[in-house]
Amino acid sequence: MNSTAHLNDLSLRLLGRPYDDLDLEESRVLQAIAARAPSSRDAADLGDAQASRGDRLADRVAAIGGSWGFITVFTLVLLGWMLLNSEVLQRFGLAFDPYPFIFLNLMLSTLAAVQAPIIMMSQNRQAAKDRLTASVDYEINLRAELEIMRLHEKLDQMRFHELHEKVDELCARLEAQE
User: Fold this and answer.
1) Most-buried pick from 39, 84, 154, 177 (CB within 10 A)?
2) Above 90 in pLDDT, residue 127?
3) Where are the domains of the chain?
């Protein structure tokens, strides 16, 4: 039996549909079953392999920008800026951004305008990784379910042969007694 016919037979027997009607995950699972190959894959590795340089940069920016270390350092820099421009440098007439800190507001707005889309890119990438993980999990669950079904078939066949042998044995005993 060629591989296409074998895959179609497996598909009809296990999923109740022709092989050509299966989606990508189902066909990949049936191919792995037919080849007796493992079908598990690491979704994180697959996601990282598909990541572009910009994706990895967005992940790093989001990891740094969403940390307590960043918040602490950023708060200290802001407080230092305000103290420096309102107390220290103003005494000497050298304050480059006196109260109401217009330049600081511009820098904060620019940072927020740049950082927000970068964090959203990272979140979109994480959502894509989650979808990939769900797809891989579906394949593994389907493979497990199909393998359990195949094991049940084999057990049923073994029981049938066992019962058939016992019936033949009993028939032979009855014939011998007659």
Assistant:
1) 39
2) yes
3) 1-39, 42-139
